[in-house]
Design goal:
The chain has helices at about 10-15, 25-35, 50-60, 105-110, 155-160, 180-185, 220-230, 270-285, 300-320, 325-335, 345-350, 355-380, 420-425, 455-470; strands spanning about 45, 75, 115-120, 130-135, 135-140, 170, 185-190, 215-220, 260, 290-295, 380-385, 405, 410-415, 430-440, 445-450. By secondary structure, the chain is α+β, with helices and mostly antiparallel strands. It has two domains: about 1-255 and about 430-480, Amidase signature (AS) enzymes (Alpha-Beta Complex); about 260-400, no CATH class. The strands form four sheets. Strands 6-8-7-14-15-11-9-10 form an eight-stranded mixed sheet, sandwiched between helices. It has a three-stranded mixed sheet with strand order 1-3-2. Strand 9, helix 8 (about 270-285) and strand 10 form a beta-alpha-beta unit. The N and C termini lie close together (about 10 Å). About 55% of the residues are buried.
Amino acid sequence: MAELAFASAKQLARKIERREIGCLELLDYFIKRIEQIDSELNAVVVRDFDRARSEARALDRKRSRIGPLHGVPMTVKESFDVAGLPTTWGLPEARENIPTQDALAVQRLKAAGAIIFGKTNVPKLLADWQSYNRVYGVTKNPWDPARSPGGSSGGAAAALAAGLTGLELGSDIGGSIRQPAHACGVFGHKPSWGLCSPLGHSLKGAVAMTDISVIGPLARSAEDLSLVLDLIAGPDPVQAEFRPRLPPPRARTFEGLRVAVWSHDQATETDAEITELIETLGRFLRKQGARVNFTARPAFDPKTAYHLYLRLLAAALGGRFSEEELAAARARAEARAADDVSADAITDRSYDPSHRAWLADHETRIRFRRAWGAFFQEWDVLLCPVIGTPAFLHALDTPTRERRVVVNGKEIAYNDMLFWPGITCGFHLPATAAPLGLTRAGLPVGVQVVGPYYGDQTTLAVARLLERHWRRFEPPPVFRDGV
């Protein structure tokens, strides 16, 4: 039965529908894998096995399916509310925060038949590309336990890659779906901003949508991403009653697909192997009949757009800060040189902008969004790195602003890696992370398939084509043969 561990959610649902396996039997299979394997990874940190078994038995008794995920066992990122389970965002002081209602996306997944049987690890306040906190500890990468699985949906990606769950739900404001998918070799989709309601994904119970931040799926198959997006898309029904109708995919084959390839940029350091793999993919697509251009870019200065994203990101995150944290950021900003334009310097100056300053940045953002819109009138998708490096070594208990990583032999500030996640999500664009290949050291890396605003169906369709003709999910070697 080891093949079940790495099946797609759609394949698992099909096995249940055909009565090849029961809901409880399938759930128990994944529970057994967690009990035998997860001590090595620490990915599924909140477990709800007994209640899930009761739900699985009830589904087994039903004569007909209740939805497309009928009986599929899945986990969700710890930051999503699930009634009766803690939501801490990695903060020890939030251990007793036990919601009484499911997040809206969780409600929608359950209504489609999914069985939520646990929650996966995150970094403190979802603010890191590793998944470590003082509540649950550190999650390890299934490809190399010395390395991070990514963050902030790192537990989600690790659980999928190791075959511990059928499906996952994450969130993204600075690569938090895409970077873990890249680091663990799975698929992830960052939807267009505003497409999916994040209600129930807030430590403070906020109902307003945070700028830039989105929720979206992670999976072992691009097809699963499309399935979940269809289920969770749409606003809070208390505010509006409608189902969004996204434009259909611009292409269903590589033939005639218009592809821009942005494999590296002087504004950031990008690992040479990632650049090489993306350019190899571009040449492959050209041979398949796509129209491919390696120099096409939106009509703006990338560094200026990146710095704008950093200011808007800081303003969005600053809403979570206490007065003490804001005071500390102001002090750090005051101590920095005036010409310091590192990511840390820009964000420290921007956590508490005046409303007038934010409006000016928002006006500039809309101008850049128009430039992106014009770009996507000529090109269907953009292929670019998810982030500038493969999975990196753990750096526990060190503030991100004090960390350094080595890329192409050069030491760079950790947070300066925000360029590739931010150049797209800062402007509310959809982006699908898909497996790209393995480095010479045997680490997975991904490619970011970016599309026009509300062009989610196009990026997902291209990811499905890549899955079919370029690279599928590949289990980490050590977990390939399991229980």
